[in-house]
Amino acid sequence: MDQIRPSRGKARGRPQVATNPPGVSGFPQVPTNQPGLSGLPQGIRGPRPIHATPSLQPPITGLRPTSSQPIHSTQPLPTPITGVAMQRPPRQMQPRAAGPPQQRAPRPLGPRPVVSSDQSTAPRQDPMAGVQQVTEGLKNLGAGDALVPLGRGAVRGRRQIDVEHFRTPRPESSLGNVGKKGTSGQPVKLLANYFPITSYTNWCLYQYRVDFNPEEDRISTKRGLLAQHRERLGGYLFDGTMLFSGSRFDPPNFELTSKRRSDDQIVIISVKFTNVIETGDYANIQVFNLLLRNCLRHLKLTLIGRNFYDPAAKIDMPQHKLQLWPGYETTIGRYEDDILLCAEISTKVMRQETVLDFLNQCAADRNRNKDWMINFKSGIVGTTVMTKYNNETYRIDDVDENSDPNSEFTKKDGSKMTYIQYYKEKWNLSIRGGKQPMLISKNKRSIRRFGEEDTLVYLVPELCIMTGITDAMRNNFTLMKDMATHTRVNPRERMERLTNFANRLLNTPDSVSELKRWNLTLSNRLVELTARTLPPEPIQSRTKGYNGGDEADWTKHLRALPMFTSAMVKNWVILTPRDNCREVEAFAQSLAKAAQGMTFLLPKPTIVSMADGRSNTFLTQLEHVINESNPALILCVIPSARGDIYSLIKRKLCIDRAVPSQVVLLKNVQKNNLSVCTKIAIQINCKLGGAPWLVTIPKKGMMIIGFDVCHDSQRKNISFGALVATMNDAHTSYYSCVEPHESGEELSVHFATGITKALVKYKTKNGALPSCIIVYRDGVGEGQISHVHKTEVRLLQTACEQVYGPGSVPFAFVIVTKRISARFFAPGHKGPENPRPGTIIDTVVTDPTKYDFFLVSQHVRQGTVTPTHYQVIEDTLRLPPDIMQRLTFKLTHMYYNWSGTVRVPAPCQLAHKLAFLTGQTLRRAPHTGLDELLYFL
């Protein structure tokens, strides 16, 4: 049951579920300034409470608050022209100096969590002297004015953020003669999924704010209203709020009058000059991306969330009630030498069922299951749906049982209408599903527009198609195998699809004319670059050295040679249901035989038979066994992969009693496969302090730290930050700790506390503090890098100063990013293939403002390998870039759960495993008695 193998670097062509902020397309909405939505089960996230009586239903889209709220949008709003009849009070704005347009940080995916009194975790007494004092000091520092991230790439505070400020200073260690380029390895020619932009005009663009009165929320309608004045405006780009033109309008502020075709309503369009965008401004890149999206619209692609998909090329999977829509992720950016278009294929999973279908499935079980509505809410809250009529995606934040399509809401003019009438008049749709609870989604666009005022979008389940795949689907081997045949794309096919996309962009007449209008030329040839492939790393067993070869896989060597170090096991216990005792005895013999082949001596275990395999029986027997014999390890054989039994065993042995444990499924015991026994023997050795192999890292006195975060599976407002640090020069001994924290609480304080604990433990074990530190920080989105640099790095420095004194200690802080769009292809004899493990890319497609590089560390047999992006944001250690790259590759060899390289450095992967175990299973910080063992493998 304990995971033996991590994912083997599966192709990134797998289905991706878009969870982007929803658009606003004519939906009834309500500001959440009303009290009291009751009936929500504990643990289900929802928006701030609202009163859900039908008579107080939401007004039509776009109602503006009358109070003077701070305005938050992608651009500051110009002062309205005086003397114009307005239906709303004038908006106030702060004066702003000229410069590039500000960018709003991505919003958190979910609503603000509500903390209940029974969800707090009792603080654990810290046994290490001195750590508490340092922690208190860190808490007093605070983060100043830095924004506090909540999720991946999310920022709390809703303040405008200038993207330029996200550019952290490039460390001086990457500014020498060689810059950030390494030197080791064999040069290799690669192709990347980037297309060069071969020519473009050195624009001086003029930026204008566009407002509509009465307001209009659908961007398509706004575009149509503005297009009625194309002759006067000339060539322009419009994103729904801002208009960019190569010409300066005279006068700079003016009004236009248009007629809305749907109802002949006269609409006043106010155009106001806001800014000049000079050549070289960051906003130039934004305009490039805006132009690109305009071109994509001409390809008859459908915008779903943030990306474009091709419904004409959809793949039907009727046996699973799914559709796969192929699409593209595209972005234009400024790279080392040129402006490049990065294009990656994407797949949107569309389920052929509506939310109403799912509701009916849950309701069909209402006689046997009284909690069927709770099951429905659990299954729908937090997911993303797509509305049938306009292909907009919405994240569901709550369910309102007290309203249905027959409920009324108040329109702007004070009149009332039902949802059924609204959808019939607005979209010509008839709702036939009868009484169905309304879905609630927080309207992200209105949050941006109205400031602190949240607005809710009410959705009808019958009109919402479910997207993405559930955990049950992921566990369906047949479904995932069938899906992989379409989504796991090899390098040759991926290159063909990307080239076809570029040709389609360059051969569609409307797209061509759009590019010509702005004098933009795009190449249809993938960019070429020179990378380097590092040689295979030497790996050491107790008696002999070897390497993993071109595929970075040393399984055959591992089975035949002694492990580097083996733990001493005096006594251990196997718990099993009585009916399976004979099979367990045979399994124990195979386990001892496999261990002996690697010179790991496992004595004969004590087999404890139980009456049955129920959870209560396990708990009783575990307590009895620990009190009787105090075993070094307990192996539990469970009848099926039931999460509740696994969780109970792990919580008992990781929180209450601090005993290393191994959980094995009965079916694996019955198979009695020597290969499986070998992997379990390796895991047992690691959990007791042994090390299967060694990769030599020459520098002495270095502590390498991995850090990752995972959310609590039941309490969405609680997260666990896991820190794993090496404790010896061989980097085979580890210390780990987990710090729980509430969402919105500064993670950096807990992170620095963990660092302090690791330093104290290192000094206890080695008699001296480490001479240098390298931190690999996972789980950071692009929007969080500024926060990490301003707060976590600074508090890390402060924590080290309090331990070391004023001289502190040199360290490097590296951001590890796995979710990237970059792909690389190596020309081979049989066509394009994946680059070999150890391939480093540090030119052409890297960022000139960053100390960054890409590393392909894995070999994959199916699909296209996904590289990992590393960004060094702080470096007082001043290791040469070549050493930093080679060290990172070495560390991908040292994850003991897999006899091959993994995608990220081993301390990062271990931190992920620990955070995941804590967040999904333990839901409390583990016992400190286990903090020097890899019990979480």
TrEMBL record:
GO terms for cellular component: cytoplasm. The keyword Cytoplasm applies. GO terms for biological process: cell differentiation; secondary piRNA processing. It is found in: Cytoplasm. Residues 1-129 are annotated as: Disordered. One of its GO terms (molecular function) is RNA binding. It comes from the Eukaryota. Pfam families: PAZ, Piwi, Piwi_N. Residues 85-107 have a biased composition (Low complexity). Residues 633-923 form the Piwi domain. Residues 64-76 have a biased composition (Polar residues). This is Piwi-like protein Siwi. It comes from Aphis craccivora (Cowpea aphid). The lineage of its organism: Eukaryota, Metazoa, Ecdysozoa, Arthropoda, Hexapoda.
